[in-house]
Amino acid sequence: MHSSSKFDPSDYPPVDLQRHFGGSINQSKFGTNIGRIAVLGNHVPRRCGIATFTNDLSEAISAQVPGLDCFVVAMTDGGQHYAYPPAVRFEIPDAELPAYIRAADFLNVNEVEIVCVQHEYGIFGGKAGNYLLALLRELRMPIVTTLHTILERPSPTQKTVMDEVTELSERLIVMSDRGAALLQSVHGVPKRKIDNIPHGVPSFPSPIQSKDLLGVEGKAVILTFGLLSPDKGIEHVIDALPGILAHHPNSVYMVVGVTHPHVKAQEGEIYRLMLMNRAQRLGVDGNIIFHDRFVSQAELTRFLSAADIYITPYLKIEQITSGTLAYAVGAGKAVISTPYWYASELLADGRGLLVPWRDAKSIGREVSGLLSDDEKRRELGARAEKHGRNMAWPIVAASYLDSFNRARVEHGLRRRSAFQAQTLARRPADLPEVRLDHLRVMTDDTGILQHATFNVPRYVDGYCLDDNARALLVMALVEEAGTEDPKIVRALKSRYLGFMNYAFDQPSGRFRNFMSYSRNWMEDCGSEDSQGRSVWALGTILGRSKDPGPKGLSDHLFRSALRAVPAFSSPRAWAYTLLGLDEYLRAFHHDEHIESILKLLSERLLELYRRASTPDFPWFEDRLTYCNARLPQALLVSGAWLKREEMMAAALRSLAFLVLEQTSAEGYFAPIGANGFYVRGGPRAAFDQQPIEACGMISACLEAEHNTGDPSWAERARWAFNWFIGENQLKQPLYDPRTGGCRDGLHEDRVNENQGAESSLCFLNSLLEMRAAYHVASVDDRVQWRPQGLEGGNVQAHLVS
Predict the structure, then answer these.
(1) CA atoms within 13 A on the CB side of 81
(2) With 50 as the cut, is the pLDDT of residue 792 above it?
(3) Which among 44, 43, 46 is positioned nearest to 261, based on CA atoms?
(4) CB 253 within 8 A of CB 287
(5) What is the bridge-based pairing of β-strands 353-354 and 735-736?
(6) What pLDDT shows up at residue 413?
(7) CA 466, CA 464: separation in Å to the nearest integer?
């Protein structure tokens, strides 16, 4: 069901969707609000930390958004029957596999929009909790999983289960940096998929009032609470008590909590009895109070408020989170702990004190020191309390809602079933017909004019090489499709090729670009980009046309123009040239000279990516500007010819990044705006959106599908194409079916009604490529080569995993 891939999701960078979309989940900018959320996990009155967490989280989320329906699917252990509150609407007996399938049906039928899973291996049935996978595989909505346990050295079964949990989840929530690091290093999860949200904590009552109510008024209170088990290390605090009491006889150590149910089922109360006997033997039993019960949250906050010092003497370094420690920090307590992972992180920067493992002397020394120094104790608590403000449940719940919102956006990109993507090949009828009417209106005896006012040619702006090269490329696609009158195609093709021939300056080997309507060149030498685009168009004629006359002239111009390209510095000129070389090599294999240029330019493009790419911004430059998708597309086709997996990986990674960067909050294709573009770390221009970006994205995604065999990339191409026909932020079409032209762009408040050459050619190019994609399974022998591990395809790894 889940194929592995050489281009693993772990290669993919963090993408901060919140940077684009901002705000909370309930804001209107996100389209429809989330109305129903299900939290899956243990729930009170079951006695465990995750049960309390699930209860607190669901209540806090509900309180954030009035009218939001947030309910619980509860895991029930060992045939137990609990008197669950109304918030629990479905129960799953952990050992009954069919119940997991029934739960999936329940969630799907009830149109739940987000499922938030509380994961710990032991609360689900099967080996390493693998029964959970049967549920997750059937869900149709986004899954966000909170990981309460992450192991540095999981067993093979645990790793297999966790790997699939992380793959099926849109987002993963951890409570520490260490947890995020382990997900990346052990399970190959990309950083961009992980949200670090702290453990939530409640508000706390007055310390003085709490001491009175608990009967410890006037005493120095040392506290440990939580489910008792032998790995808690409480015996080492008891061993430290004689030394503490020698200096502070008015101290009391309170141990609050029942024995862990699993421990009690296997060993009974052996551990608690051992602690009590140890205290009696040391003569400190009169200064220890064991509260052998599972206390309510109200009681728990009272105990914490009464404490002067909180201590977690746990014995396992691997503990990745601790609700009890989070509560203590949130309460602003002076905390002493052994250096397990979560404590080392949470108590850093002077927020608490760490003592060595199993070291009663160090515990006694630190406790006595804090009880002797009220100012130091208060300062320690103040630093903890300041840090704990961000752990209050309302803030934590808001962060969860942000994560849910990201999951919704990303879920719109990810296809859980190849069937959905494969329906692309069954929908050719809903594409417009190819119409050359507007193209012919824009073309005169010289070539195609640049601009239009509405759909009327604007002579004042004259002509440019760029548009005539685009038009020549489109003619090659039209000729290949065979849907138009060959005489019309031949005439237009000759007109555009003739313009390019006239634009070429043989002595310099360079094309001129801009020409006035009076047929005067406006420059002696055009841009590198226009030269690269010309090579691309000429290579396409050579690779696809059957007409010998245009092919002969194209071959001469192609080879002549190539001579100047190796000296170019423009990455887009390299990319356009590489696309032209790819087109040429479709028909003329093993041309060593052409292959050598392809290798030279593609290595340059790859090196540019290596230098500029960062985990948060895997791109060729420090900005996204124009014709963005042509860069990964060029690297992709080059990697395919050269069988360079590194090129393929970089191309797919950068293209996946671009897909995410160009996705609106509602899930529409939203290209980087030309009104400012997007510089890393700066604001992202949402408008003006240009047809040239949609055209490039369509081509690149179809190329990705062709070279990986994954049909989900073709679905991304359709997603970008739909931008032309109204699936955009303004919900207005850019394609004009009356003329066959395309409007020039999408502004913040309107569509640009002018139908210039570039926009109309971009639409025609995209339409022709989309129509060809429905009918052509394999264009050439490149599709026979697959990067290792991509057999069968796995586009979600490139898009959002």
Answers:
(1) 0
(2) no
(3) 46
(4) yes
(5) unpaired
(6) 60
(7) 5
